[in-house]
Each structure stands twice: as structure tokens, then as C-alpha cells.
Amino acid sequence: MAAFRELDWRRLDVRAIVEQRGVGNSNEDERAPIRAWLHAEGYELLVLDFEKGISPVVAQLGEVLSWADQFGYELSPASRSLDALRDGFSFVIAEKSTGMALHLIGFAKARAEDPAWATGLVEIISENSLRELALGRRFFALVEE
User: Fold this and answer.
1) Whole-angstrom Cα distance, residue 48 to residue 63?
2) CA distance 127 to 121
3) Rounded CA gap, 60 and 46, in Å?
4) Quick one: which of 143, 99, 142, 145 has its CA closest to 12?
5) Torsion angle of C-alpha atoms 37, 43, 46, 49, degrees rounded to 10
6) Which of 38, 39, 55, 133 has the lowest tally of Cβ within 10 angstroms?
7) Is residue 98 within 8 Å of residue 42, measured between CB atoms?
8) Would you tell me how many other CB atoms lie within 10 Å of the CB of residue 111?
9) Is 21 helix (H, G, I), strand (E, B) or coil?
10) Could you tell me how far CA 36 lies from the centroid of its own chain?
11) What ranges do the domains of the chain cover?
12) CA dist list (Å): 14 to 74, 107, 126, 137
């Protein structure tokens, strides 16, 4: 089963997944139209807002990834363990959806706060996008600085 019927390079998802290895770019002016497009195309959307720093996003990921169910403990908002995040970074993509998109807002603040962690998160997203693509599913992120 193919994730795409054709590679239409005009499509945001094709460019982000295939050309940019699962991590595309966006800007604030494009936010509303991109979200509308994702919704119209049947994507699940998870917004990760870094405006208040990395810790609130780590806590959000702990909830979304059902961390306590997976590992028996809560993911600490202060956690910066990329190995742990890589181990638990797996989203359930509903069969009825086209795929899943993450929208990372204010990512410049994450890069400023902890450049190694921010880079590691992007690498984990890219790795997960490749795994999902191999399984015929679409997963990608849009990074908005």
C-alpha cells in the first residue's frame, strides 16, 4: 500500500514527507490556510506550541503519547532525554484519517533554550516519518520559527 497515489510536488505533504524528510517549514502568515488545508485533506493535527518553552511541550507529549501507560511513569516536563523520547515517540494514526501532522509553533524559542534537544526532536520526527512512510502512512511536521 502506497502512502501517495502520485507524487504531486505542489502538495505540502508530498514536499514535507518526501523532499524534506518529514519536516517542512511554515510561517505565521500561512498558519490558518495550512490548518484549513490539512483539515480538508483529512489529516489529524497536533499543535506543539513552544512559545512558553520546551517543558510544557514535553508535558503535552507525555499525555499525547500515553507515556505513563507505555512506561509506568509520567514524562517529566523538565525531561530532556532524547533517547527516552525516541523510545516513546509513536503516534496512533487513525485508519480513517489521511495521516498525522505536527505543527511546531515558536520553534525558534526551543532552539534558543536547548539547541541540541530541538535538533534531536526534529531528527526523531524525521525518523518517525520515514517509518510511517514505509508502512504506507503519512506523518510529518511543519516547523514555524
Assistant:
1) 12
2) 10
3) 10
4) 142
5) -20
6) 39
7) yes
8) 18
9) coil
10) 17
11) 12-144
12) 35, 22, 14, 12
Distance of CA 93 to the CA centre of its chain: 12
Query: Of all helices (H) and strands (E), which one includes residue 103?
Result: strand 99-105
- Cell numbers that stand for 19 in this block: 523532499
pLDDT for 109 equals 98
Q: What is the pLDDT of residue 1?
A: 82
Q: How far is CA 72 from the centre of its chain?
A: 24
pTM for the full predicted model: 0.95
Residues of the chain with pLDDT under 70: none
Question: What nine digits make up the cell of 112?
Answer: 534558543
C-alpha 75/C-alpha 11 separation (Å) is 35
- H or E stretch including 124? helix 115-134
Q: What distance in Å separates the CA atoms of residue 53 and residue 113, rounded to the nearest whole number? A: 7
Residue 115's φ and ψ, nearest 5 degrees, are: -55, -40
